[in-house]
Amino acid sequence: MFSVLKKLTxxxxxxxxxxxxxxxxxxxxxxxxxxPPRLIGMVIDDVHQGQMTEWMLRNYxxxxxxxxxxxxxxxxxxxxxxFGGAIIIERTLRxxxxxxxxxxxxxxxxxxxxxDLMAKATNDLKAISLTTGFGxxxxxxxxxxxxxILFTMGFLVSWKLTIAAFxxxxxxxxxxxxxxxxxxERFIKAQDAFGDLNDQVLESISGVRVVRAFVKEKDDxxxxxxxxxxxxxxxxxxxxxDALFEPTIKILVAFSYVIGLxxxxxxxxxxxxxxxxxxxxxxxxxxxxxxMFAFGELMNVMQRGNASMDxxxxxxxxxxxxxxxEAAQSSIMPTSIELKDLSFSYPLxxxxxxxxxxxxxxxxxxxxxxxxxxxxxxxFFKQLLREYPIDSNKLFIxxxxxxxxALGTLKNWIGYVPQDQFLFSKTIRENILFGFPDANxxxxxxVMEHASITADIETFSDGIETLVGEKGVSLSGGQKQRIAIAxxxxxxxxxxxxxxxxxxVDAKTEATIVQNxxxxxxxxxxxxxxxxxxxxxxxxLILVMEDGQVKEAGTHDxxxxxxxxxxxxxTKQQMENSSTEVHAR
Length: 585
Fold this sequence. Notes:
Residues 20-304 form the ABC transmembrane type-1 domain. It is a multi-pass membrane protein. The structure is a single chain. The chain folds into two domains: 3-316, Up-down Bundle (ABC transporter transmembrane region fold); 336-584, P-loop containing nucleotide triphosphate hydrolases (Rossmann fold, 3-Layer(aba) Sandwich), CATH 3.40.50. A hairpin with a 2-residue loop joins strand 4 (395-397) and strand 5. It has helices spanning 3-7, 9-14, 16-33, 35-48, 54-103, 106-111, 114-156, 159-166, 169-206, 208-213, 217-269, 275-316, 377-384, 407-413, 428-433, 441-450, 454-458, 477-489, 507-520, 556-562, 565-584, and strands at residues 336-344, 354-362, 366-371, 395-397, 400-401, 414-417, 495-499, 525-529, 541-546, 549-554. The strands form two sheets. The protein has a six-stranded mixed sheet, sandwiched between helices. Helix content is 65%, strand content 9%. It is of the alpha/beta class.
């Protein structure tokens, strides 16, 4: 049960002063809290025996008020320290969790659902925060405070009466242990179900236009209802056990009350204790309700925290499959790119997606990559981005094996526009400046012009300050592509990767953008994958890919002379364009 505290030892060591102060003050406050019941018993005995005077009553009242103020100040201090620590660990773990996710490669996200990752960042972190705050409180109150009350009852009243009243309480400990084991198992299942619910909601919201287009709203609601019912059922299973804690504690404490009153009254009749001591004893019994309740809550909170910590550690212990090399470099420049007999297969795939690729690309080349869908064009880019591990000494930049280059350095060299452009739910300005936040207005206007998006932006009522909505929902496909291109260009990368980034624009706009990029990026390396041959026609090198292999390579003129796939596809597209122009006239 307490293994979660062991797993959080690193945090308690970092903030040991805070927790030592909080626990010390909490224990001191517990010692002070057992004094008032004893004073009440003394007051009752003095009144009952006719010894109470005005001076004594005034002193009792002053002592009560003084104790109240001291306990209030001490309680305020330990609560601030203890629950402040709970807030700190939530912030620390959330920061560490986010940093860890940012280091993960696509393999990790293929194995973990987004909804489950979100559940860990919310519910699980909250459960751990509760453990380091309320959990520590219940631990002290269920042990130290309980012992203090029992010793006070034993020494100041009667050990015989204390032992008799305490007899039902071991039964409580046994039941709490049973409840804790069951709630741990059920809470993990409930958290997993919540992760599935998050994933379903995320997919429904992201794909709402597809759902509506296929008139699947009813089916989507039914599926959501089924998952919601499953989450509800699993949380009800947790609640059923959770609901047993308080009644069990109250029933057993009630038995203690019955024993205390009955047996205590007999002690009074025998003059073994005074009436005031019996009243003090029953007040102490009432004070035992919270430590016993805390004991039950301790089991509950610790088991939840332990389950959440286990789930979170599954993520923290996952090591990215792409690591910096021992001889990480940061001062070199990408003067050339070379692939030597490179083959690659995805972690979960059984066959190679890239096969024996061997090419050399000097700095400043414009490289076009074409081929059928699924031929390996995007996978080729993923090797340059080091999204997946590859065999050593297969991919070189500036004659240096890519695994020796620091990941940060490599990513700083590259500007990337993926097939599925992602825009943040911010303004157009913020989306473009994401590539280089310190860029000035001149640079901003230049890249917008090169990406042929300026005219479109001027038609918006708020211009460049227009909010694009989630994932750019308010923009057309072509507008999103051009904003993404502008975002990559403003970074002025040494290597630019455009992965079918012109598919949603017309041929005239495509030609303009390609010409602008060639002029803008003279002396820097650019890769363009496309389905339209016109996008790569003027490239210094064109690679034709088929089944993961480079089947043809050369300039446009050289490939046309080879009479292969490229020549056939280019001729076919030219004929289609001519036919379209004739029809348009």
